[in-house]
Write a structure and sequence with these properties.
Order of helices and strands: HHHHHHHHHHHHHEEH
Number of helices: 14
Shape: globular
CATH class of the largest domain: Mainly Alpha
Strand content: under 5%
CATH topology of the largest domain: MetI-like fold
Strand order of the largest sheet: 1-2
Number of strands: 2
Structural class: mainly alpha
Number of domains: 2
Largest sheet: 2 strands, antiparallel
CATH architecture of the largest domain: Orthogonal Bundle
Helix content: over 70%
């Protein structure tokens, strides 16, 4: 008996030691991975405070040379050269991006939620075929769809309009897929309970099921906001007027054949990260909940 207990203790000790070693190795690995991922962000932040000549001479580095750091890039970006020029351009781009992102996120979440709700909560003919077609669109690169979409926007006379930028991406296949997979884990008995209480289908969808999917909404809101905020190619094709440019397009205009203002471009890019970063920090709990909700069933 005593020998059995001794062997059991040894096994527990060996198992605990292996678990500790694996935990340390995993911590070191993810710490190193985090440093690798954070390096470009930190290097870009330091570069935004350096003049263009230093940036060209040293490139992106984490060399903390405070003697060369200056706020001139941000002063030029927000207030022109020495604050004498018009500073409305950057904030105009910023406002256009905020408006575009807000409309895109709200419209995409609502449309994709209702589509996914129908595909997950109801049984009807060709349901699986429709879902397959939705998934199939995820396999087609945007570069292939770009020209047909552009011709369609021209025919609809939506060139140089915000709706011309927003409409093609409102029904996002990835968002529909995520919502459907999330709602597959919800009990359908809630629908029957709502019907017994006299609620119609619309009320069940909006007042009963929608609040339960709050983690999925938060997760997709972050991802949709990042995609809309950083979108460059499609808005650049649709917009013609400079007063409608979004932030990525506006920052791209800083690169001209007559001079590349990489220092101002980096400063503007770093400042443009703040809205998405704030949204992520606020909703990161819901993002994790939404991403892990379908991992366990039962």
């Amino acid at each position: 008996m005593a020998k059995t207990l001794t062997v059991s203790k040894r096994r527990n000790t060996i198992g605990g030691t292996k678990h500790t070693v694996l935990s340390i190795l995993a911590t070191v690995f993810f710490l190193g991975l985090s440093l690798i991922i954070a390096f470009p962000l930190f290097a870009g932040l330091l570069a935004s405070f350096r003049p263009g000549r230093e940036l060209i001479r040293k490139g992106l580095s984490i060399d903390l040379d405070f003697s060369t750091m200056t706020l001139d890039n941000y002063i030029y970006l927000f207030g022109g050269n020495g604050g004498k020029q018009d500073s409305s351009k950057y904030f105009m781009w910023f406002k256009n991006s905020l408006l575009l992102t807000l409309i895109t996120v709200v419209g995409t979440l609502l449309i994709c939620y209702f589509v996914a709700y129908g595909l997950s909560m109801y049984d009807f003919k060709l349901k699986n075929l429709l879902f397959f077609l939705v998934i199939a669109t995820m396999m087609v690169p945007f570069e292939i769809l770009m020209l047909p979409l552009y011709q369609e926007i021209i025919n609809l006379k939506l060139i140089d309009t915000t709706w011309g930028v927003i409409l093609p991406g409102l029904c996002a296949a990835g968002t529909i897929f995520f919502f459907r997979q999330y709602m597959q884990g919800l009990p359908k008995e809630l629908l029957d309970a709502g019907r017994i209480d006299g609620a119609n289908e619309y009320r069940i969808c909006v007042q009963i099921m929608m609040p339960i999917t709050k983690p999925a909404f938060a997760s997709m809101a972050i991802l949709c906001a990042m995609g809309a905020w950083n979108n460059l190619l499609w808005p650049m094709l649709v917009y013609r007027s400079s007063n409608k440019f979004t932030l990525p397009i506006g920052l791209n205009t800083l690169l001209t054949p007559y001079g590349n203002n990489y220092d101002v471009l980096i400063a503007g890019s770093m400042f443009s990260i703040l809205p998405v970063l704030v949204v992520f920090l606020i909703f990161q709990k819901y993002l994790i909940d939404g991403m892990t909700a379908g991992a366990v069933k039962g």
